[in-house]
Amino acid sequence: MAAPSKRQMLRFISQFGAFILTRFGFWNCFSMLMLFAERADVKRKPDIQVPLLYVDMAAAVLCASFMSFGVKRRWFALAAAIQLAFSTYASYVGGHVHYGDWLKVRMYSRAMAVIGAFLVLASGAGEVYRQKPRTRSLQSTGQVFLGIYLICLVYSLQHSQEDRSAYLDHIPGGEITLQLLVILFGVLALSFLSGYYVRLASQILAVLLPLIILFIDGNLGYWHRTRRVEFWNQMKLIGHNIAIFGAVLILGTDG
Q1: Is pLDDT of 3 > 70?
Q2: What whole-number distance in Å separates Cα of residue 172 and Cα of residue 220?
Q3: Greater model confidence, 189 or 36
Q4: DSSP assignment, residue 118?
Q5: Residue 82 near residue 124, CB atoms below 8 Å
Q6: What is the dihedral of CA 216, 221, 222, 224, to 10 degrees?
Q7: pTM value?
Q8: Are the C-beta atoms of residues 58 and 78 closer than 8 Å to each other?
Q9: How confident is residue 255, by pLDDT bands cut at 50, 70 and 90?
Q10: 42: left (phi over 0), alpha (psi -120 to 50) or beta
Q11: Where are the bilayer-spanning segments (predicted)?
Q12: 224 CB-near residues (< 8 Å, 6+ apart)
């Protein structure tokens, strides 16, 4: 049996990234429901008022369903980006739950990155049989959002003791390695923002993100017990990073 060619391998990776990204809405809704159930036990309100919350979740599931089946994927990816932007804005201005500044940066920067990921998908990137030309403006906008996410990550690693401690506990070399990571994330951010070497930057980020998800985000004991992040809120944030990973797989193979 012949080994798969490089082109087939890249196509498979791109399809895998699209598979992850198109299913994000299901996980996000599930984790939100579990989060609000967790809050109900301690009589805390959800981020969004209940009638609006159900409409928001229905829209997210609808978009995820159509994207998963490949029906008008570009249109529903764009709709998913708009839905997530609206949901994030409603959560921010609602003011029902008060988060620490460091947690706000983590939450809203990742939401912005996932919005950018959906814009990349809406541009036509990652399509196996592309029948229409790619919309470069949507892809460029999505890349800018991913770059902003990386800038926020750099900011957190410099100014958030919570994030710094999470990394310092798991990386060898201590502060020196952390500063090298800051420089690397900064360079990757410039690449996404400028539009130069995006494929290479995405490939590097595709290597780093699984390690971050596994060792940093996956350290539930640290985030939940030590930093008092709600368990299902942290699980939702993990889902955000997995969706971002799906986007960089697409950009790293079909950027």
Answers
A1: no
A2: 20
A3: 189
A4: H
A5: no
A6: 110
A7: 0.93
A8: no
A9: low
A10: alpha
A11: 12-36, 48-69, 75-95, 107-126, 138-157, 178-198, 204-223, 235-253
A12: 230, 231, 234
